[in-house]
Structures are given as C-alpha cells and as structure tokens.
C-alpha cells in the first residue's frame, strides 16, 4: 500500500477533489489513515469529518457519491488529489456542484452558480 505522511500534518492530510473529466475543483476535504484505506479499498471517496470526528463516505446521505477514477499524491506524500466521477451532480453539502461557487469581484462576493439541490430537503435539517 502507498504510505502517506500523516504524522507531519497531525494525523490528517488534505484531499483536493477534481472532476476527472473537466478538471473543475469540486472540494477540499481531509483524510486520516482509516479514510485513506477505505477510499483505496472501496473506490468511493471517504473522508474524515473534523467537526463530527468520524469517517464519512461522500454522498452516503445525499446520493451524491464520488467514484474515484485517479489518485495523485504530492511530492511530500502529505496531500492527495482525487479525480472523481461526481454522481448526482453536486459535491457541495450546500447543494452546489462545487464548493467553490463564490468569487471575489471588486471586493465583494459573487455567487457564480446555481444550486443543484436543496440541502434542507436532502438532509432534512
């Protein structure tokens, strides 16, 4: 198995997630060693939730799963790039395709996309 350097970053490594066809950056998440192993064995992106302090399979609740098509590791072995097939059309828990739907323009935040789903409906919160 590929060995990542989880020690350098306090047990978590950043995972940059891209759409494997378009190259669009969808999100940034974190992985601990268990999430890394789960991702490698299942082929589904699995992350570590810092707020809930538990593993989460991306899309398990919403249906917006990420199927891993390619994995790259940076030169220091402490950052992962996942190229994924984003099922359901949205990577962001707020309902957008990408978590990066806000653009700074003339000192103000501009929303550059429309939501794919309503998070209130999907997550029943």
Notes on the structure:
With 125 residues, the chain is mainly beta. It has a single domain (13-123), classed as Roll (Ubiquitin-like (UB roll)), CATH 3.10.20.810. Helix content is 12%, strand content 36%. The chain has two helices and eight strands; from the N terminus they run ββαββββββα. The chain has helices spanning 33-42, 119-123; strands at residues 13-19, 25-31, 46-49, 54-57, 66-73, 80-86, 102-105, 108-111. It has a four-stranded mixed sheet. A two-stranded antiparallel sheet has the order 3-4. A hairpin with a 4-residue loop joins β3 (46-49) and β4. The radius of gyration is 15 Å and the shape is globular. The termini are far apart. The model has no long low-confidence stretch (mean pLDDT 95).
Quick take:
The protein has a single domain (13-123), classed as Ubiquitin-like (UB roll) (Roll). It is built from 2 helices and 8 strands. The chain has helices spanning 33-42, 119-123, and strands at 13-19, 25-31, 46-49, 54-57, 66-73, 80-86, 102-105, 108-111.
């Amino acid at each position: 198995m590929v060995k990542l350097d989880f020690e350098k970053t306090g047990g978590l490594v950043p995972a940059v997630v891209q759409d494997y066809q378009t190259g669009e950056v969808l999100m940034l998440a974190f992985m601990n060693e268990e999430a890394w192993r789960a991702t490698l064995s299942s082929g589904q992106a699995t992350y570590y939730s810092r707020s809930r302090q538990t593993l989460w399979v991306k899309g398990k609740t919403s249906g917006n799963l990420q199927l891993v098509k390619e994995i790259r590791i940076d030169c220091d072995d402490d950052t992962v790039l996942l190229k994924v097939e984003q099922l359901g059309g949205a990577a962001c828990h707020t309902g957008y395709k990408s978590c990066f739907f806000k653009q700074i323009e003339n000192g103000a935040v501009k929303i550059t996309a429309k939501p794919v789903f309503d998070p209130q409906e999907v997550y029943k919160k």
